[in-house]
Specification:
4 helices, about 325 residues, disordered N terminus, two-stranded antiparallel ribbon, twelve-stranded antiparallel beta barrel
Length: about 325
């Protein structure tokens, strides 16, 4: 299937789906959860990340030299009902190896669905489930885009600690979010044919493993501290900041590296959120030796479309205009 029909099929399939009602992005009870940078957050929303920027030097592997990778990503999310939404995303990659030419191109398009199925305002808790589709063949092979699809069912969670006893007041601004998913490739093996010097052809098979993708974020909301715990006199913009640490990891579940080659990053940083926009900046630190040895950077500009233009962007085909998701 060519690039354009795959996009039309992916988009069309999403637009015919629906779900039942509940609550939307970032806000449950008194708790505002920001959009996280390294892992997906548990909410559905009308929002736009443009751009998400990352840069890191990757270690070499076999015949692949050490490479500086720079990514520019964009993602737009749309609610179809108060609790159900989809998103479309893409990434432009720049690969600058120590040896060889610079390679540029788009990675595969990403499509995802998400549904919030449990929420408790009193306990600042919610659970959602989703599925992501990495649409094979929509990106450039020279930057590593696969020709096969990968589908990733995922469980998301969010928990604020505002329900702690009063004796633990200073811990109430803490919150935890996370995602647990399994990436399932549509093709289990790649056949690699190599012509040897004597003219013979050798055939190798490379396993595309199932991969457990897991991660979480630990957040401390200074806005929550000021508004609901103790006013310590922080002026803006500091009172709108959320110090955060994100952990994004992957563990192969089968193949030669099954269960033993977990890789990922630990991302400490800061998020500032306003009425209509959010800014985030994090360091990208390899979690272990297999993940690399160089520190990178991750940044994002994130727009709350449902608050910027609620009459336009919060229209849904099944529930009318939902309106903004933050209180005026």
């Amino acid at each position: 299937m060519t690039f354009r029909p795959r996009i039309l099929l992916a988009t069309g399939a999403l637009l015919v789906l629906t779900a039942t009602a509940a609550q939307a992005h970032g806000l449950i009870g008194k708790r505002f959860f920001p959009a996280t940078l390294a892992i997906d957050d548990p909410f559905v929303a009308d929002e736009l990340s443009l751009p998400t920027f990352s840069h890191i030097k990757l270690r070499g592997d076999g015949e692949t030299p050490p490479t500086r990778e720079t990514d520019f990503s964009a993602e737009v999310s749309k609610r179809l009902s108060p609790d159900f939404g989809f998103s479309l995303g893409g990434t432009f990659k720049i690969l600058d190896p120590d040896i060889g030419p610079v390679l540029t191109g788009f990675d595969n398009m990403e499509v995802s669905l998400k549904y919030v199925f449990f929420k408790s305002e009193e306990h600042e808790t919610l659970l959602s489930m989703g599925v992501g589709w990495d649409v094979g063949g929509t990106g450039s092979k020279k930057v590593g885009a696969e020709s096969f699809d990968t589908v990733t069912p995922t469980l998301f969670f969010g928990k604020g600690f505002g329900d702690l006893p009063d004796g633990l007041d200073l811990a109430k601004p803490f919150a935890l979010t996370g995602a647990l998913g399994v990436a399932l490739p549509s093709r289990r093996t790649n056949v690699i044919k190599t012509v040897e010097d004597d003219g013979s052809v050798s055939v190798d098979r490379e396993v595309n493993p199932y991969v457990f993708q897991w991660g979480f974020s630990v957040q401390y909301s200074l806005q929550y501290l000021q508004s609901y715990v103790r006013d310590i006199g922080l002026p803006r913009p500091f009172s709108r900041m959320i110090p955060i640490v994100e952990v994004a990891m992957e563990t192969p579940l089968d193949g030669p590296r099954s269960g033993r080659h977990t890789t990922g990053t630990i991302n400490p940083g800061i998020i500032w959120f306003g009425r209509y926009i959010q800014l985030g900046l994090e360091a990208v630190i390899p979690a272990n030796e297999r993940s690399g040895k160089n520190i990178g950077v991750l940044g994002q500009v994130h727009f709350y479309l449902d608050d910027l233009w609620p009459q336009i962007f919060t229209w849904t085909p099944f529930h009318g205009v939902l309106g903004p998701t933050q209180p005026r």
